[in-house]
Amino acid sequence: MATPAVRMFRRLEGLFCVYKPPGVHWKLVRDSVETNLLKGLNSTPAKPLPREVRFLTSAGGDAEGQKALTVSAVSLPVLSHHPLVTGPEFCNIRVGVGHRLDAFSSGVLVLGVGHGNKVLDDLYKTRVTRDYTLEGEFGTATDNFSHTGRVVERSTYDHITLDKLDRVMAMLQGVNQKALLMHSNVDMHSQEAYEMAVRGLLGPDGKSVPILTGLRCLRFEPPNFTLEVQCLNETQKYLRKVIHEIGLELRSTAVCKGVRRTRDGPFTLHDALVRHRWAAADIMQAIQGYHSSKKKKHISQE
């Protein structure tokens, strides 16, 4: 019969996401979640200790004052099964990480527990897009495309308008759309390609260069601006370079001040657990919520 800790672990198997704060390495986030899960599993009430019958002897006396041994049957707990003897029931637990975020980025980080790691691998290989918001600033160029890097150039930005920025982004989207079609490995003149495009399934076959599938400006207050990006096979360094290239196309310079992932496949910021909710109970609730949403989606498709 499964122990309470094992039954709890079975309810923890699956996918969930957390909000990774900026300035924290993803390994530290994963280790913190693992520690909290182990603490939650090992704090579940233990099963009652099994008992065994032992025959104990005790000295007694008779009416004539002579000593005699008496034997009595006593039920005692088996101390070899006590947690202080056996140690914690769970000593390690594997928490897998999906599409990673570098230390300076923040946002949705998908994790998997138990058989959720297999689902995580499948999700990693699928053509799911991810959404980001990028904070940029015109007028400066650095050696790593980030505002924390060494400044290598300064320039003016008074000539930049929202209309010019939109034209540059439209040009970038056109270039990336061609790259998307080139890496799709599908005949663009076929019915299959048309049906895949209609359903939004057109994408690179396997690993490819980073591809931007969507790009728009959310805020334009020179020198600061905010972009929303949808992409495939990206890295956060590549996204910072996009900001740099936009600055060059506008005959200026630009650096990236922040990268935040707002969606990774089916997971959004609404689903992400903030740091004070990285406890076993909250994670279990998030995993059950993900399972429920998958069932509802499957029923609606039928």
From TrEMBL:
- UniProt xrefs under SUPFAM superfamilies: Pseudouridine synthase (SSF55120)
User: Which top-rank group of organisms is this from?
Assistant: Eukaryota
Name this polypeptide is given: Mitochondrial mRNA pseudouridine synthase TRUB2
GO terms for MF: pseudouridine synthase activity; RNA binding
Q: Which family does it belong to?
A: Belongs to the pseudouridine synthase TruB family.
| Any one biological process term the GO annotation gives | pseudouridine synthesis
Lineage, opening ranks: Eukaryota, Metazoa, Chordata, Craniata, Vertebrata
User: Domain Pseudouridine synthase II N-terminal: where?
Assistant: 94-236
Q: Which species?
A: Betta splendens (Siamese fighting fish)
Xref: Pfam families: TruB_N
